[in-house]
Design a protein that fits this description.
Elements (H helix, E strand, L loop, with lengths): L2 H16 L18 E5 L2 E11 L2 E8 L4 E8 L11 E2 L4 E3 L2 E2 L1 E3 L3
Antiparallel strand pairs: 1-2, 2-3, 3-4, 4-8, 5-6, 6-7
Length: 107
Amino acid sequence: MRKGSSYCVLLLAIASTASCGGPAPPDRPSNVSASARWAGGSDGGAWYDCSQHAANVVRCALYWDNGTPAGHGLYRSTHPIKPGDIDGFDGVSVYIGSERLVEEKGG
């Protein structure tokens, strides 16, 4: 392989790796706490502020991308979880990967 083509392959690898993180989160609305994390993509998403409640339960406050409250409660997994494990909210359910967490009633 020629030196010039090796350089192009290296640049392409760096560029593709740098863009794999997905779109940057929107500006954090003023009513969303600094500890809230973003879960979303180019079509929108949600902010979630979760804290540990039990080994497999987190307490979350959920906000749409514009800061409008979307819900709050206790969410249970089938295995131990941490607040940072949450990576999705579809308007009804909180997710870790493909697992839908069960909302505790009265939480």
